[in-house]
Specification:
2 helices, globular, three-stranded antiparallel β-sheet, alpha+beta
């Protein structure tokens, strides 16, 4: 009698904690009516090649709101995941003051790290990036 073939070893999926959204840069954009800052992030640890996306703060907030509206985020379950926003920022120069630009970049990076940590692959490819690209 032949010995049964061993069961193939299943490789566990990467834990969502390995998915990272890393701030890789920012750039001042001179707009027709108003200047703004674009932040660039690289998402690593995905099931495909690394993804890069660029966004201004207001666009990132719009995507967050869309994820809530489409049910990808739950207001109660994701109560600890809040989009970075300071009511005082409306009175600050968030475009030309480098300290403010860097602070906002760090806050966005912390938000994306938490988003990808909590939602892993689902938010990484199936929901977040398509919503992000649709909103552009």
């Amino acid at each position: 009698m032949a010995e049964p073939e061993p069961e193939p070893e299943l490789k566990p999926a990467l834990p969502s904690a390995t998915r990272q959204g890393t701030l890789t840069g920012h750039e001042l954009v001179v707009g027709a009516t108003r200047d703004y800052v674009e932040y660039t992030f690289t998402v690593t640890g995905t099931d495909a090649a690394d993804e890069t996306f660029t966004s201004r703060f207001s666009h990132a907030k719009s995507v967050h709101d869309q994820l809530l509206a489409e049910g990808a985020l739950d207001r109660l379950a994701d109560s600890g995941l809040s989009f970075p926003s300071h009511w005082l920022d409306a009175m600050r120069d968030m475009t030309h003051d480098e300290a403010n630009v860097q602070r906002r970049g760090r806050e966005l990076q912390a938000y994306y790290s938490e988003l990808f940590h909590k939602h892993g692959a689902a938010i990484g490819h199936k929901e977040f990036l398509p919503v992000f690209r649709r909103a552009m």
